[in-house]
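Backbone-to-sequence.
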C-alpha cells in the first residue's frame, strides 16, 4: 500500500503546511494501522508512533490535480480532498453549510491525499515532482 499527498504549490508556505496536515489527519483517521506503535527511548520517554508507510508530498498544477481527483473517484483508492471553500471557513459547521452550495469542481481544489495499492497510486502520480 502507498500514501501520497499532492498539493497545488501556488500557496504561501503556511497554507501548504496546513493543507498537508489536514489531509494527513484525514488519512490517519481512516486507514487502520497506518500509525506504528509507540516507542520508548533510552531515557524511558514514550514517543507516539509515526506512519509506517512512506508518505511523499508531491506538487502539481491545478488542472493536473483536478484530473487526478476525477480519476481517483473511479478507482478503489481512498481519497481526501482539501479545498479553498474549506480553507475559508472559521468553523466546521460553516464548512458543512458552505459545501452544500458548491459543486465538487467549483470548490477550488488545493490538495489531495491518496491511499491505495502502490501500483495504482504510482500510475496516477509517477510523473509528479516532490514538493520543495
Amino acid at each position: 500500500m502507498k500514501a501520497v499527498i499532492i498539493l497545488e504549490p501556488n500557496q504561501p508556505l503556511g497554507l501548504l503546511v496546513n493543507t498537508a496536515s489536514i489531509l494527513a489527519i484525514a488519512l490517519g483517521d481512516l486507514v487502520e494501522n497506518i500509525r506504528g506503535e509507540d516507542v520508548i527511548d533510552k531515557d524511558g520517554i514514550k514517543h507516539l508512533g509515526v506512519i509506517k508507510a512512506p508518505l511523499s508530498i508531491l506538487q502539481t498544477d491545478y488542472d493536473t490535480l483536478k484530473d487526478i481527483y476525477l480519476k481517483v473517484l473511479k478507482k478503489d483508492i481512498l481519497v481526501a480532498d482539501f479545498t479553498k471553500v474549506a480553507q475559508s471557513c472559521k468553523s466546521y459547521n460553516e464548512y458543512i453549510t458552505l459545501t452544500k452550495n458548491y459543486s465538487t469542481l467549483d470548490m477550488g481544489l488545493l490538495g489531495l491525499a491518496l491511499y491505495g495499492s502502490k501500483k495504482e497510486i504510482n500510475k496516477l502520480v509517477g510523473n509528479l515532482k516532490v514538493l520543495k
